[in-house]
Amino acid sequence: MVGGGPGAGIAETHRTAMRLDDKCVLIAGVFSRDSEKSRRAARQLRIDLDRVYPDYSVMAEVESKRESDRIDVAVIVTRTDSHFEIARKFLQSGIQVICDKPLCLSLTEAKELKRLAEEKELILCLTHNYSGYAMVRHAARMVRNGDLGKVCVVQAEHASGWAATLLEKQGHPQAAWRTDPVLSGDSSVLFDLGTHAHQLARFVTGLEVTEVAAEMSQIVQGRAIKDNANLLLRFSNGARGTLWASMAAIGNEHGLRIRVYGDRGSLAWHHEDPCHLRYCPLDGPQQILAQGADGLSAEAKRWTRAGLGHPEGFFESFANIYTEVAEAILAKSEGRSYVKDELGFPDASDGARGVAFVESAMRSFASGGVWTAVEAI
Amino acid sequence: MVGGGPGAGIAETHRTAMRLDDKCVLIAGVFSRDSEKSRRAARQLRIDLDRVYPDYSVMAEVESKRESDRIDVAVIVTRTDSHFEIARKFLQSGIQVICDKPLCLSLTEAKELKRLAEEKELILCLTHNYSGYAMVRHAARMVRNGDLGKVCVVQAEHASGWAATLLEKQGHPQAAWRTDPVLSGDSSVLFDLGTHAHQLARFVTGLEVTEVAAEMSQIVQGRAIKDNANLLLRFSNGARGTLWASMAAIGNEHGLRIRVYGDRGSLAWHHEDPCHLRYCPLDGPQQILAQGADGLSAEAKRWTRAGLGHPEGFFESFANIYTEVAEAILAKSEGRSYVKDELGFPDASDGARGVAFVESAMRSFASGGVWTAVEAI
Amino acid sequence: MVGGGPGAGIAETHRTAMRLDDKCVLIAGVFSRDSEKSRRAARQLRIDLDRVYPDYSVMAEVESKRESDRIDVAVIVTRTDSHFEIARKFLQSGIQVICDKPLCLSLTEAKELKRLAEEKELILCLTHNYSGYAMVRHAARMVRNGDLGKVCVVQAEHASGWAATLLEKQGHPQAAWRTDPVLSGDSSVLFDLGTHAHQLARFVTGLEVTEVAAEMSQIVQGRAIKDNANLLLRFSNGARGTLWASMAAIGNEHGLRIRVYGDRGSLAWHHEDPCHLRYCPLDGPQQILAQGADGLSAEAKRWTRAGLGHPEGFFESFANIYTEVAEAILAKSEGRSYVKDELGFPDASDGARGVAFVESAMRSFASGGVWTAVEAI
Amino acid sequence: MVGGGPGAGIAETHRTAMRLDDKCVLIAGVFSRDSEKSRRAARQLRIDLDRVYPDYSVMAEVESKRESDRIDVAVIVTRTDSHFEIARKFLQSGIQVICDKPLCLSLTEAKELKRLAEEKELILCLTHNYSGYAMVRHAARMVRNGDLGKVCVVQAEHASGWAATLLEKQGHPQAAWRTDPVLSGDSSVLFDLGTHAHQLARFVTGLEVTEVAAEMSQIVQGRAIKDNANLLLRFSNGARGTLWASMAAIGNEHGLRIRVYGDRGSLAWHHEDPCHLRYCPLDGPQQILAQGADGLSAEAKRWTRAGLGHPEGFFESFANIYTEVAEAILAKSEGRSYVKDELGFPDASDGARGVAFVESAMRSFASGGVWTAVEAI
């Protein structure tokens, strides 16, 4: 693990996700640029101090030379602007990568990571964990099965209320860098939240966003960047839609949701109630599909632990991604052929698509909202 | 009443709304172009056949000359393309008008009706009945009171699933004319549904839509017109938003809803559950405001009949509009000064705004989705 | 109409219900024991003063002697303790009756009214209006059709929060007599609210409550009567259940709901959302049945006016009862055979069943909660 | 761990819960009576085979004699009928216990375990995991804080649909022993499900059930035992309520829920949506309290990992219990005084209360439903 010292929120989520299914063990890392802090974190995590490294570069080099006990995968949970360098280094060293989202901040970099991963046949998993939810997988399966007919309209949102006040001026470190015009810029709301909605839309529908028309605005007065984005979307099959990303939608808890309308049925999923999926067939009443119920797809069953009425949530969705990667690594290590499932964990392609989407949206907005193509990757 | 013979759906709603509060009596009309059908309808409605007229023009002229018992207001429930001529005739004859929405099909006509109504100091009420719901009035009051702070984002939808199949080829008369490329054209989904969402957004927020960027598409294959529209909006105070109008969103019952986010709170209302309003203040938990509960505004109380937990719905919202017009007419007839409340029934201005909005959206779409100004009226 | 002078809440609901479908006209009445108040009410209601009577007895006698224009039915909206005398008088005079619920306060009286109505072949309709909701009718039809298999468990509630404070000491007239130990007694919560839940359970399931075990308690301190009742039920087919009646369940709006579980499926309906019905078949996901949707029963269609997504509520349910009675009266007046539908409006039998149920529950409670038979009527 | 070999559902939940917060490590066990199966399980779980024991008795004796590395606590996940012997043995050997619920099958045994644990000052935690949910803790805190005033009515349910068919005849091992008239008897539905609702009611309200009147029935035809129970409750402060336990309520997912009504407010919690709590104060609108939101109690914050809008569920609630026990053990081991919090994990007292409750309910039912005292323990 690179990053994730004391106080780093998302790293703890990654570590919990590793433990949950008992498929992954954390054995090495650089937990802070400050080596004392890094070692302190390692001690808390009961990691052998011999495998605490001064920086990611040394870690990649040393670990890549270990024999039987080298790390299977490096987990990157640093700030986004460092993802590219770190991921590239590990890939170059022949080490697989799990990287927190978004993949990086430029399409050029994203493509380079994708190219590297493919060239070296290494896994690069991006933890868009929402793609790991059992009912999101089920939704994706239903669309692939044709239960919705041709997808015509997609309404995706990640409109959270987490930064509905000037947190950045109240000592909130996450808010500080995410609203810093230099570090993050206006694209922050799209990189941080928009890419989740974009990935969810792609994952569930199997379609690509080919064009975007973007409008951005500011909700919280005094903030240095735009904190709200409303986008029109065109999809690869001709479907249309909208995407709303916001960090200041008061009263929305987490605010990730998707509604997909086809010409034979519709689906709706909302992260605040992740074990249910609303399905409306053309000829029949609305159905509430519940995780763990009889009759769901193999994908839904595969990623359900306790069964009907026993809610699984954020950590389980994250653990699903980790377990899926662990199984892929195991398959590779055993020489079994490993083919990533269409409905499997997000990878470098997904990451690059996300970056391309944000770049296109920013260009659209800069040019007054004209329809702007999203590069196919 | 002009229109509303046998089988005309919305006319029966108007008549029910008239009766509900016992403030209006139907006493004259032209119920069909076929005078025999018209008289038959009149008999069923127990209307004196002396006041069944061969056409609206005769009706306007004869009624305008009656003394004490002339009609107070003419109700127009014909197809939209005839609204202008009929409304103009009654206004010219000095008779007030209640007109089904949308007001008419061109801005020029809409302005003429508005001008006429103002010049003659006559009421021209447009039955956007959703503005009549107690909790919609309450929402509007809360925004005016500043409970949401500055409104920043407005998400409005009228995405219904009513025409999710080719009803127009299955003998459904409403669907036939609403999807006829000559009679209704691509603007149909905006005139029929979009104007409801537009009016709801304006009514609740007190803001005007000043610019629109529009995208239209088709869900039902084989349909002669676009049946889906996704719009980006800019509002008069700088707020942003989206509006989704659809006639083929499978699984959506009626699909009219609005969410308003300010910098101090947010509100959400959904027509499928019209007696509740979700309110999220910045500093506190989400609240479910219920019609009839203690502590609501005067507007909410004014338009509530039975009280907490006794649902009122579509007909009551419609009746609220009728009763409000009846009271206005009574005030005028008694020489009391009548000033339309900001939160009162929709009128010619609202109707003209709606037509301007549709025209701008159509121009935006025709020009590839560029931001297009909506004329202030 | 007997009763229903100024300020009488439920009378206005009855009058609105009469008007809604334009099948009933109010033409005579005794609106108050104070004849001046009665005449004032009549003027407001535009009723011919010749048909305002000094008391119900005179009204019954005079009206029963009128020829062509005599009233078809007398509506009784007085306080419950006077229902028996008034209803008996009209029935004895050969005039049909619509009576607000509960029918009366003793089983002996209830049976007498039932006997009279049957002997004279007169309609005695009891306005348990919740039996008039389209989706309640649909639920009843589904149970009759066997969609739930054998009904095994019934959970019924009418636990309202309307009197969660000492309203009776704050000048609230309804609360005053409903919590008066002499006028209403501990049985008040059962007569006023429990009978609605009891009727709803019977209507939906087609079963009778054969035994009851009752516990009563007090929520609001200082109240002179019990305001809460929890009952265990045994049904005629062996099903079990509970019934909760309360007038002081804080936060419950109206609080009428029912859940029915069979061995093939289950149903749930809640008055706060009356246009939807939750249906869970044994082999399949939960379905949300919506009023106005395709595929519902004839009963649901019959009592739906505007269609899918256009909410109908309290007044429409009440109007359904009135319209149904109007049609029955019309059938009788035209000499057509009239057979009350099993799923039709509540009548004297239902009323007597309700009174028997309350009496048995009170006896059970008085004897320490032992199972007590409910007389079959 | 005793029990929990291959295929034992709940053991895997316990193990996941141990790992989640990284406070517990599984190091010894008897995973099956078949020693080969036991060793196979140990290998899968990466447990040192030296610490796999032939039976719980040997395990207790050997482990109790180890020095620095002896187990801190024994986890019992066997079938209920063996809980008593195993728990007694570990307690007698000076080893603390975490036991799956219910504690045991007789009150005499339960009291003996409680006595032993107290005498030896050992922790005996009972994994009623629902008491571990952050929002359940918050509910309990609100009641203790007086936010509801005096608790007056408690409606508790654990009415699941898990065994709505004859699973026991379809090779379902859980269903087989839970519906075996010899092994489990009619009390099964109360022991398995009723005790969860009973514990939830006690935990949230801080009240004891002092009397119960019980009715039991059968939903699934052909089943050898009663699978449904409806109970009336009296609480220690005079409050009343009901408890519904069922294993065959079709369409209910898990079916655990509680509603508490006081004279100043009410609360509702439903396991299918565990991160929200409905709160209705007497003077104000209904509030939806959300896990992770600002302003919640220290208890809610303490047991929340990821924050607002990031759902936590079944495994996290279970992990909360484990982590709480781990902290208590740590405190004890460090010589810090450890006082179990009123809102802390369920223990032997809670377990004994649950058994007493079931025994009283069974006696009430056997005697025709008379009110039966529940022994205070």
Describe the structure.
Four copies of one chain form a homotetramer. With 377 residues, chain A is an alpha+beta fold. Helices cover 36% and strands 19% of the residues of chain A. The longest helix of chain A has 20 residues, at 314-333. At the C-D interface, strand 4, strand 5, strand 6, strand 7 and strand 9 of C face strand 4, strand 5, strand 6, strand 7 and strand 10 of D. Strand 11 (286-290) of chain A pairs antiparallel with strand 11 (286-290) of chain C, so a sheet runs across the interface.
Low-confidence stretches of chain A: none
Largest sheet of chain A: 9 strands, mixed
Strand order of the largest sheet of chain A: 11-10-9-8-4-7-6-5-12
Q: Using CB atoms under 8 Å apart, which protein chain pair has the greatest interface?
A: C-D, 47 and 46 residues
Rg value of chain A = 20 Å
Order of helices and strands of chain A: HHHEHEHEHEHHEEEEEEEHHHE
Structural class of chain A: alpha+beta
Task: Indicate the multimeric state.
Answer: homotetramer
Proportion of residues in helical segments of chain A: 25-40%
Distance between the termini of chain A: 28 Å
Count of extended strands of chain A? 12
Shape assignment of chain A: globular
Give the percentage of residues in beta strands of chain A.
15-25%
Average pLDDT confidence of chain A is 95
Number of helices of chain A: 11
